[in-house]
Amino acid sequence: MNSLNKAGKKDSLDELISTVKKTENIPTLPKVLLKISEEMNGDNYSIKSIGELMSHDVSLSARILRIVNSPFYGFPQRIYSINHAIVLLGANVLKSIIISTSAFTLMKETMEGLWEHSLFCAFTAKQIAVALNARNKINGANKNTGNIDSDIAFSSGLLHDIGKIIIATTFKENFKKITDIAINDKRPLVDIEYEMLNVSHDQLGYMLIKEWNLPASVYLPIKYHHNVHLADDYKTEAAVLNLADFLTQALGIGYSGSPHIEKINGETLKILGIDIGFIKSVIEEIYSFKDELYIFD
């Protein structure tokens, strides 16, 4: 299944469901994630048992510790224990990092710069959430934002472009055409994807992450990060992700596959209740982190 014709578009929903179900190996979900997910789905999961599962994958454990000890998280003391790291990161961030780690090599092979874009977007989304929460604590909660889970924002940012891997792997012929058109016409990748496939990477990413049983607070922002105005639930989180994606592209960190940088989304600014001063302060916080993207290498 390397291309979709017009007739095939009529059955696109069945096609997409079939595609998502075939993506257990795109990227491959490691056995450790399946076991950890089963453990976490229980009412009284044990940090110790999860730590023991993690210990069977030395590379994965090392990357978890790199994340938790990175400047992005900024914990005052170095974390040496994987169990301590699990407690600090939480279940959803842990799952997101494991998924991303399994996708790491494939992301590198699929599109040069995609991994760096995704990782920086994750930390930018987290920083935006932290800054919004701090503002709300001082000035009173914005009627739209309330309190935002910064770790959930991180998870959405880390996984927001994983749908591009599905397109690159499942629709190989189209993927090359899509990226060529994006470069030549200087148009958003997401628009060309939809024109050619009747679906875009944000929708495919949403379906994949939902299939992997992460919460709606992670997969709905992914679904709407290019169309914030369409979101009903988790609209604030979608706006945070949209802004993080925009800033990551505008700063030239990594490569998302789209050379075209759209104007900042006015709906996002309205939802978050922010101005250019807020955005400048976020940029000042995150820009130095560009030199820390080696942590997964």
Detailed description of the structure:
Helix content is 65%, strand content 0%. It has a single domain (6-27, 111-296), classed as Hypothetical protein af1432. The chain is built from 17 helices and no strands. It has 297 residues and is mostly helical. It has helices at 6-9, 12-21, 31-40, 47-54, 58-68, 82-89, 91-110, 114-139, 150-159, 163-170, 172-185, 189-197, 201-211, 216-224, 235-250, 266-272, 276-286. Helix 2 (12-21) packs across helix 13, helix 7 packs parallel to helix 9 (150-159) and helix 8 (114-139) crosses helix 17 (276-286). The protein is globular, with a radius of gyration of 19 Å. The model is unreliable at 1-10 (pLDDT under 50).
CATH architecture: Orthogonal Bundle
| SS-based class | mainly alpha
Helix run count: 17
Rg over CA atoms, rounded to whole Å, is: 19 Å
CATH class: Mainly Alpha
Order of helices and strands: HHHHHHHHHHHHHHHHH
Largest sheet: none
The tally of structural domains comes to: 1
Q: Can you give the mean pLDDT?
A: 81
Distance between the termini: 32 Å
Cα shape: globular
Strand content: under 5%
What is the name of the CATH superfamily? Hypothetical protein af1432
Might you state the CATH topology name? Answer: Hypothetical protein af1432
User: What percent of residues adopt helix (DSSP H or I)?
Assistant: 55-70%
The tally of strands reads 0
Spans of at least 5 consecutive residues whose pLDDT stays below 50 are 1-10
Assembly status:
single chain
